[in-house]
Amino acid sequence: MPKISIKSQNKSFEYTPDKNLLQILLENDVFVDNPCNGKGSCGKCKIKLLEGNLPDIGETEEKLLKKEEIDSGIRLSCFVVPQEDIVIEILQKEGKHDILTTGYTPDFEFDPLIHKEVFKIEKPTLENQGSFEELICKTFDVEKFDWRLLQQHEFITGKVTGVFNGRELIAIECGDTTDILYGVAVDIGTTTVVTALIDMKTGEELATASMINAQKNFGLDVLTRITYEVEHPEDGKEKLQYAIVNSINEMIGDICNKSKVDRKNIYEISIAANCTMMHLLLGIDATSIGMSPYSPIFTKSKNILAKDIGLKAAPGARLYCLPSVSAYIGADIVAGAYVCQLHKAKENVLFIDIGTNGEIVLSNHGKLLSCSCAAGPALEGMNISSGMRAAEGAIEDVRITESGVEVQVIGDKRPIGICGSGILAVVKELLRTELVKKDGAFIKKEKLEESDYRYDMIQLDGRKRQFILESSPDQILITQGDIRQVQLAKGAILSGFYALLRKANIDMDNLDKVIVAGQFGAHLSADSLVGIGILPEKVEDKLVYVGNSSKTGAYMALMSANVKEEIEQLAHQIDYMELGASEGYEKLFAACLIFPG
Amino acid sequence: MPKISIKSQNKSFEYTPDKNLLQILLENDVFVDNPCNGKGSCGKCKIKLLEGNLPDIGETEEKLLKKEEIDSGIRLSCFVVPQEDIVIEILQKEGKHDILTTGYTPDFEFDPLIHKEVFKIEKPTLENQGSFEELICKTFDVEKFDWRLLQQHEFITGKVTGVFNGRELIAIECGDTTDILYGVAVDIGTTTVVTALIDMKTGEELATASMINAQKNFGLDVLTRITYEVEHPEDGKEKLQYAIVNSINEMIGDICNKSKVDRKNIYEISIAANCTMMHLLLGIDATSIGMSPYSPIFTKSKNILAKDIGLKAAPGARLYCLPSVSAYIGADIVAGAYVCQLHKAKENVLFIDIGTNGEIVLSNHGKLLSCSCAAGPALEGMNISSGMRAAEGAIEDVRITESGVEVQVIGDKRPIGICGSGILAVVKELLRTELVKKDGAFIKKEKLEESDYRYDMIQLDGRKRQFILESSPDQILITQGDIRQVQLAKGAILSGFYALLRKANIDMDNLDKVIVAGQFGAHLSADSLVGIGILPEKVEDKLVYVGNSSKTGAYMALMSANVKEEIEQLAHQIDYMELGASEGYEKLFAACLIFPG
């Protein structure tokens, strides 16, 4: 079999010459960015050929690359089906990502569903030979329990500690182990996963770990992952499940090491995630989420054996999955709504989590209505010509001043692309400085004085204008297409925002608070949000940021049986409005496409 | 690594030279008889060296072999730790075993716990996006179900068939599949396993398969398998479980093939087995069964997911394990007691299953008392110098007449050993012809006329006498030690028999019926049983044989929810008497050692 070697990563592996290079690389765990999921449209999966030969370049691939790139041996890996030994270089390196692990937590009482109690199991005798199972039922005063508990035990007697999930016995330990009780709270985002180790005796967060969701290899967003599942009926679901389960197992290993805690003493893993991630976590088909009428397989909370999906913790450890509302209002949003106590709000509060989907929950004095807006990945830096995720080297803020363009780069590195907050910032600045008009079109450069430094920054690419944000060493462009992507995203979110208010009969003046949640939202300044009209101007001084409320909700559910109950009730209280099916939505959406100005 | 080749089996494999040859052979699935489980005491695990060298013979091994055997290259594989390439011959070939798969079945009504119903799942709409889980609960009118059912499904709508285990939904199938409903009944014996495919619509037995319990490689009886588990804490339990689960899976494949049934349409597997086999089947520690006070981990019935122990059938298929009474009155005996309706007996009925353990249940007009007698493996042909299991070449019946000794051999082959029923027959004949006295000792040959053909058949081996049953080509001996083994076994069973009667205050004249159950019992003639005093003479005309009532019980439980309930009640109704702890037992045992005559 021919061999691929990756320079700089000291990696090489054999391959069967019937797949494209992107597939081969991803299957061998080599990260290559591919926002379009290998569909041949994003032009991001560049690699450089160093040794050996690749088949000739085709028409579509040629269009997506610059001539200089082609001359230097750069190819798009999704187009190339290699046949022989090659040595390549991966061009996009995966930088250190900035992942939000903290946020606001309201006061609440600790009363974990998981708890321990000490008992004494009497020794059987020849006259009284009762089975271990009978002794357990008698000693722990339970009628029955999962038979698999019996698989974990020799016949132990004497002082033991029972571990209970509510009134259900889930483990028995020798001696008194009541001092040892750990749990894990997890937020699975489509892009990032955050895991926290919790001492359930004190509620203290001992350590956190975070990483990029390993399912990225199967698609960057929810829909491409569902497509992957559909296109790989033989093992797609299993691979996606394995990727996330394995990631969580690794992170648990990591936080246990940091805190010197034995993972055998983790008794519950509490997880918040969007509805698709929850399906993929449990190995449940997510196909129906991807097509109308968007009905998921399940939304209810789950309290199951963690090992049933391969999570490694105490043998009887539970996995608690928070409930969702619908396919596009997931447990992450329910968690956030709970953390913000939307159901108990005494005013009109709007909760928004901005990402590839913008999820909005409106609380009208506790009456809850939600919607989800298909913003697309532009706001996260995807499907943008120079876009990248918020990692080292990404431009995260931009200021266009009289004298020049100032950029702020994550990690203070040489800029190699622009992430979501940077895109928003630059569009906001282009609008503020009137280089882009309210309808989203670039002005003609002729409208500027030739002496204006920005005169040269506006260029024509064919018939379309673009803005050169950085020209060397790497050119970082904002194209007319990029502006359109942002425009579609902002139109989607803003129209959802207004549709909810309209449905609830609340006008802007009566909206008391706007809560911005989530990984991505935390990096969006009020300035940008309002500046490009993702949110209306009037909310600027009503904005509150709550950070990763999804993880916080998982943490609270872990630490309190009462919170679990309340969250489950809350999920039922949130009404869901399908925007596409609501009256007059298309007109509203069109109006919301206009930038403020 | 050095290599072992097995002549005549065309098998060869590499090995690491740190284990004894018996271990290596068993690990590579080469059957070598080893009743003592490799302890170096039975002298049965003979192999013949054809090429290569083995380490020198030691003192113990030398004692267990004859000089001629040593000279011809025969060794005991448990003593030998090979170091180089060798070619060997396996001496004991595994013949075709005669396994009993049938028996008496009482009339009963079919009402299987597993059943099917047709429903219609409504299509969700944009206005009514209910999850599949919610639709299922509504459509099938269930409150909840095992979440793993969701793993098996895409979002299906329209006509579907629900498979129920009682009121629990366990599977959903597209369309109307109510005509297809299969189940499997299994009897796991320590020695043999019998599996039957049942059409649950009609109760018809479509096919049966049987095989030697693959756990034989880990020990021939219950105690040696427990010892194996104890001595291999890292994976002993898993290996024993895998062996039996794999055997059942193979047999299910076999009977499905024979009947052209898809194993995906098997919805329940109903299993009867002794308590140790049931523990090993479920991967539950059996150690405590092996030591006083003989308390097992569990005795209750189990109705669990078949795939949780690796059984391959319908995805949601159930495994039903019949209940045991105690460590030594297992589900096989409960099944038999149920099949014989002991709890409804209108007279005094004694049920006995004779094997390595003799289990007895006495019904005093429906009041049930049981005990278990450690008979040892002699009655099954083990621990007997020329003993073997009931396979081709085994002497199964013997008659000593005036003119000579007549033997009956299984498969009409050249005799190579003697099985349980043969042992009993020969001992009975030795007693009848007064070659062996009531105390079990051989008579001195001098007591016979020199002209008597039997004069030469009694020989001295050192200081002990023995009887030469066959002299050529293979010598088949009955030694004084063999007689002692039979004597111990018969003493154990007879004393259990009397102890039960005594406890229930029933005398022999008031005992109305004696039911002989089980694989082995079916081959024991009333003649032999009474002739050597395993049972008292007075029962001879009260004997009834019911065959494999363990499998029949599993079948009945499969076919009826009511039977399941009644069997579970029955298990509670059977009192267990621990013989070792009962008053005056040792004296009774001593008295029962005496042979009749």
From TrEMBL, chains A, B:
Which PANTHER family does the record cross-reference, listed alphabetically?
IRON-SULFUR CLUSTER PROTEIN (PTHR42895:SF2), IRON-SULFUR CLUSTER-BINDING PROTEIN-RELATED (PTHR42895)
> Which domain of life does this protein belong to?
Bacteria
Organism listed in the record: Clostridium autoethanogenum
Which SUPFAM superfamilies does this entry report, sorted A to Z?
2Fe-2S ferredoxin-like, Actin-like ATPase domain
The transmembrane residues are none
Cite a single Pfam family from the UniProt record: Raco_middle
Q: Offer an example of a GO molecular function term for this protein.
A: iron-sulfur cluster binding
What is the name attached to this protein's record?
DUF4445 domain-containing protein
Ranges of residues in domain 2Fe-2S ferredoxin-type? 2-94
The organism's lineage is: Bacteria, Bacillati, Bacillota, Clostridia, Eubacteriales
- InterPro entries registered for this protein in UniProt: 2Fe-2S_ferredoxin-like_sf, 2Fe-2S_ferredoxin-type, ATPase_NBD, Beta-grasp_dom_sf, Corrinoid_activation_enz, Raco-like_middle, Raco-like_middle_sf, RACo_C
